[in-house]
Amino acid sequence: xxxxxxxxxxxxxxxxxxxxxLPGFESVPDSEAGPKTSIDRIDHVVGNxxxxxPVANYLTAITGFHEFAEFVAADVGTVESGLNSLVLASNDxxxxxxxxxxxYGTKRQSQIQTYLEHAHGPGVQHIAxxxxxxxx
Length: 136
Hints:
136 residues; repeat
């Protein structure tokens, strides 16, 4: 499913057969997988877009996600720069999709606008991982 920019959401049903997971996907044997970590899942995937509401409305319509949190420039911005953010969540709130849009009229250009210009449009800004114990 196309989300925004060139970002695509793939619904994958977990199974023991990984051959058909993605075209060209090759499994890595456990012995080559690297050190064990306490990372247990993806916490959130942040997307930067030019206009927040059309993308949020589209995503809620196709995923059934609901609004989890909202932050406007007054909450997270400064006199120098700002952004607006809307966090969408799955029903169990284990999958979070924050969306950011730039704000305008501040002394400096919004970091979101800078991202959008350098990336030539909307895309994933970062993926955050969840762990129960970061020191483990």
